[in-house]
Design a protein that fits this description.
The chain is of the alpha/beta class. The N and C termini lie far apart (about 90 Å). It has six helices and eight strands. The strands form three sheets. Strands 4-8-7-6 form a four-stranded parallel β-sheet, sandwiched between helices. Strands 1-5 form a two-stranded parallel sheet. Strands 2-3 form a two-stranded antiparallel sheet.
């Protein structure tokens, strides 16, 4: 009835006035609860991944010891076998090779995820003696970039993804390239890939690349 509706309106008005007089305290409490919720989520994630702290390197040194991809677990629920990935301050390009299904792309993704997790203030699944450098940007070209609706073949789509990296990457950036210059004749692709890597090396961009090209494997050994 009318009396009941009026009483409800009165109660809502009274409660609203109480909230209005304490809005600052309520907002502060809300912010603290959100911060506590974030910290709780971070700690639970760290416990699930057996993650810990990592040293932030002031130089370009990268030394990931027992680095484990945070999304990969063994069938028994334990963390996957870790990798060791090292790039000293006088190195700028690391070429990763091996058989198909050997874990090359996983290593590439692990390097990128470790840096993103550190930037997000998360504990990371690596040995506590590991070191990472905080890069300004992380550039990634990974996966099949074919797009028939845009008239892009696998190779042209791949080149389109590489274009901004070639144009804008600097010595303060991290570059992750999976199967560089694939999708065309191996000799042509190998030559293009070598030219790109030599350019990135000259610019001292920290670059990790996976490849099956024999010439690039030789480049890693012969070009100091």
């Amino acid at each position: 009835d009318l009396a009941e509706k009026l009483e409800i309106i009165r109660i809502f008005r009274e409660l609203s006035e109480l909230v209005a007089t304490n809005v600052s305290e309520i907002q502060n409490n809300y912010n603290e609860l959100v911060a506590l919720d974030v910290l709780t989520a971070k700690s639970r994630l760290a416990a699930e991944q057996t993650a810990g702290t990592v040293k932030i390197s002031s130089s370009s040194k990268i030394n990931l010891i027992d680095a484990r991809h945070p999304l990969i677990m063994r069938s028994d629920g334990n963390p996957a076998v870790g990798n060791m990935v090292e790039m000293n301050h006088d190195q700028s390009v690391l070429i990763i090779s091996g058989p198909n299904a050997g874990g090359k792309t996983v290593v590439l993704k692990t390097v990128g995820l470790m840096h993103l997790m550190v930037r997000a203030g998360l504990l990371v699944p690596v040995d506590d003696k590991s070191q990472v450098r905080l890069f300004d940007n992380i550039w990634i070209e990974m996966g099949d970039a074919q797009d028939l609706s845009a008239n892009l073949s696998t190779f042209t789509g791949h080149l389109s993804g590489l274009k901004p990296i070639i144009a804008d990457a600097t010595s303060k950036d991290l570059i992750l390239l999976d199967e560089l210059a694939v999708g065309t004749d191996p000799q042509t692709g190998s030559a293009i890939a070598q030219a790109m890597l030599e350019d990135f090396a000259d610019r001292k961009c920290s670059t990790f690349v996976t490849t099956h090209f024999e010439t690039l494997k030789g480049l890693a050994i012969n070009d100091k």
